[in-house]
């Protein structure tokens, strides 16, 4: 089965294949966009109607996951039209009902209005997201779990011992969905009376540095003062490699997701793989995705009391939800087989 996967070079997509190859699914490599850096797959060339026109004989089904953020709706509609003309079915996995990079949800909704009705099969990760899709578009998606993010060998390694109890808040490059400042302030307040507890905030140079492309003066100034006062540990860096990210996550006891809107999370899956407890917001469907603690946070604002309560609960009870490697392997094989079955069905 030949799949034009958009994209192919993404950890989620790579882990849809059975490691043994028993699913017999071949996903085409990502065509390099014009002027692309090595390893870059965006903007996806496969989403162009002219690419389908030239290459339709090379694949049996197109499966769209990510990468259409900047696509003009007219171009996306043209892609659907070309797939229809070439007799190639579309499968769409709805990871995000609200794009975490967009303040205005309108553009993403336009994309979904095109993709979901056109798809021969829609997949999503949780029943909550499936319910929304069914209400809005009259389509009931198939719900399949998010496969592992960390590799099996790393998942099997024991967590390193460390002193104290560390809560991590990762502002990264400050997606539109993030609101880390009030979250950090509430966590600090919760930690004041918890012996040995510390907050570590990680942030990328492009947000923290004054000459950074996405510099946030208010957040950077607040973090700089709090760190100077010894109230938190501040780490400024560029994007982690995978190994650096796994080391970082396992250095934490708890990771707080500072989102005010969103749907699902690969970060949550990585924490589950590595045994780091997550405190997730009430927006989206994180609590349906994997076991975690929750607090109330959405576009209406933050309920600081609920976050402080979740931090105290994590400190007092020390819950550990860590993936079992053998179960993750079985899950991956099942997800791979399910995808193979979907592709066969839509091609028929």
- Beta-strand portion reads 15-25%
Strand order of the largest sheet: 2-1-3-4-5-6
Q: In the CATH hierarchy, what is the class of the largest domain?
A: Alpha Beta
Q: Which fold name fills CATH's third level, the topology of the largest domain?
A: Rossmann fold
* Low-confidence sequence ranges: none
**What's the Cα radius of gyration?**
21 Å
Offer a quick outline of the entry:
With 348 residues, this protein is an alpha/beta fold. It is built from 14 helices and 14 strands.
Q: Can you offer a commentary on this structure?
A:
By secondary structure, the protein is of the alpha/beta class. It folds into 2 domains: 2-148 and 329-347, Glycogen Phosphorylase B (Rossmann fold), CATH 3.40.50; 152-317, Glycogen Phosphorylase B (Rossmann fold), CATH 3.40.50.2000. It is built from 14 helices and 14 strands. The protein has helices at 11-14, 49-55, 73-86, 106-118, 127-137, 152-156, 180-191, 205-208, 217-228, 242-251, 266-274, 286-289, 304-317, 325-347, and strands at residues 2-6, 26-27, 61-64, 90-94, 121-124, 142-143, 165-172, 197-204, 233-237, 254-256, 277-281, 293-295, 297-298, 301-302. The strands form 3 sheets. Strands 2-1-3-4-5-6 form a 6-stranded parallel beta sheet. Strands 9-8-7-10-11-12 form a 6-stranded parallel beta sheet, sandwiched between helices. Strand 7 (165-172), helix 7 (180-191) and strand 8 form a beta-alpha-beta unit. The model has no long low-confidence stretch (mean pLDDT 97).
């Amino acid at each position: 089965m030949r799949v034009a996967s958009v994209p192919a070079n993404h950890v989620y997509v790579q882990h849809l294949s059975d490691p043994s190859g028993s699913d017999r699914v071949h996903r085409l490599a990502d065509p390099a966009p014009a002027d692309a850096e090595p390893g870059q797959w965006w903007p996806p060339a496969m989403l162009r109607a002219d690419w389908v026109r030239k290459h339709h004989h090379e694949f049996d089904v197109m499966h769209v996951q990510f990468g259409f953020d900047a696509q003009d709706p007219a171009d996306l509609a043209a892609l659907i039209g070309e797939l229809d003309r070439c007799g190639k079915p579309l499968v769409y996995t709805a990871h995000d009902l609200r794009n975490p990079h967009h303040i205005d949800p309108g553009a993403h909704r336009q994309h979904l209005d095109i993709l979901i009705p056109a798809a021969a099969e829609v997949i999503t990760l949780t029943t909550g997201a499936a319910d929304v899709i069914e209400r809005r578009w009259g389509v009931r998606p198939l719900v399949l779990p998010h496969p592992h993010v960390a590799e099996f060998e790393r998942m099997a390694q024991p967590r390193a011992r460390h002193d104290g109890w560390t809560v991590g808040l990762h502002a990264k490059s400050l997606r539109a969905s993030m609101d880390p400042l009030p979250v950090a302030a509430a966590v600090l307040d919760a930690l004041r009376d918890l012996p040995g507890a510390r907050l570590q905030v990680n942030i990328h140079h492009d947000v923290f540095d004054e000459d950074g492309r996405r510099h946030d003066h208010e957040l950077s100034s607040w973090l700089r003062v709090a760190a100077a006062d010894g109230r938190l540990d501040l780490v400024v860096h560029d994007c982690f490699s995978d190994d650096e990210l796994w080391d970082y996550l396992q250095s934490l006891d708890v990771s707080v997701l500072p989102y005010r809107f969103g749907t699902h999370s690969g970060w949550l899956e990585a924490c589950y793989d590595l045994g780091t407890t997550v405190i997730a917001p009430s927006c989206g469907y994180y609590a349906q995705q994997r076991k975690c603690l929750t607090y109330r946070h959405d576009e209406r604002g933050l309920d600081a009391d609920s976050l402080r309560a979740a931090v105290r609960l994590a400190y007092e009870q020390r819950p550990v939800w860590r993936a079992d490697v053998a179960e993750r392997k079985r899950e991956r094989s099942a997800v791979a087989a399910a995808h193979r079955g979907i592709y066969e069905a839509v091609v028929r």
